[in-house]
Amino acid sequence: MPAHDATGDLFAVPREATAVGRVPLAERLRPRSFDDLVGQDEVVGLGRPLRRAIEEDRLSSVIFWGPPGCGKTTLAGLVAQYTKSEFVPFSAVTGGIPELREIIKAAEQRRAVGRATTLFVDEIHRFNKAQQDAFLPHVERGTVVLIGATTENPSFELIAPLLSRSLVVVLQPLTAEALGAILDRAVADSERGLGSLRLAVQPAARTRLIAFGNGDARSLLTTLEFVARQAPVGRDGTRTIDEQLLDTALLAQSLRYDKSGEEHYNLVSAYIKSLRDSDPDGALYWLARMLEGGENPRFIARRMVIFASEDIGNADPQALVVANAVAQAVEFVGLPEAQINLAHGTTYLASRQKDNASYIGLQEARRDVRQHGNLGVPLHLRNAVTSLMKEMGYVQGYRYVHDDPTARSDQSHLPEPLKGACYYRPRTPSADEERD
Are 88 and 202 within one domain? Predict the structure, then answer.
């Protein structure tokens, strides 16, 4: 069933606009049915619950979460094809609360005569928390079935009451295989694709185009269409896309990396875990990903300084010195040369023995502080600065370590309820590590 909306249909492509060049290739090739859909088989493959719910028109409120070009809007368009309810597309980028009120008012009128409304909100995370509250009563009463699309982690960007009333569907970046199938379809399709251009895409160029797409079908198709227009027409009427043409047409690959979003935290997490597992190769790869994505080198250097004490500690105290030196070098040298300093520090930290005993000891001590409250300092550890303090027993029984070499081993430095507690348990290196 076609999508319908009094304010305009974001999904249907007008017949006169299907010719090559009228609308972007990515829009022309947008799947019109599940038979055309490529990728996301784990979510909407044949027989999957979400696909059945869409095909049987019994979908409840849902949030599609995934990176750009993975199929969020496409799935919403398929819902529009299958639902018998009024399908209303709405963008949080161009619309606001006044427009939303009009949509809700119309939905209430439909509901009064027994007609349902499905509301698709693209970029739903663009609404602030107060604006998101406006959806709640209408979703709860069933005035609308809400379909939201977001590139941002819903846990951070959407309010908890809205999440609790919606199914969150996680979409992954499209695989290289899926992107390859989409590329091949675009090249072959003469009606909606680029088939009329008679493109000949060489294997190496095809591989590079797929990599350039970086899991994003829209980016892939936009790039393909641009490159295809640059390809010279040969004597036989074909246009060849080879690596030389790609080098000329494409200046630099744009890696997906949001320095304030989830991908920022995902990459630095992978970097730290590689350092912790003593894998310099993995650490260098994630360092490169962050640098190529435009990450602030100061942020990376700060994490290195923290890591040196948290994960290496006294197994190699020099690690903190190196990490601090890298941080200073980043300030003094700056990019691009500072990436050499970052690589130096990364491989050093990844190659050192690991011991988090200092960090764990502090955590355990803080736990006891919270559990036991303000335990008094033992009298023998207090400083008697007045005669009254001396009379009260301050400093009595304290053994000065320089006068009594045994004082350190058997003199307690903890409050009585914690006497005998052991917080610092340094890791004993293995024989192989000692040899290293």
Answer: no
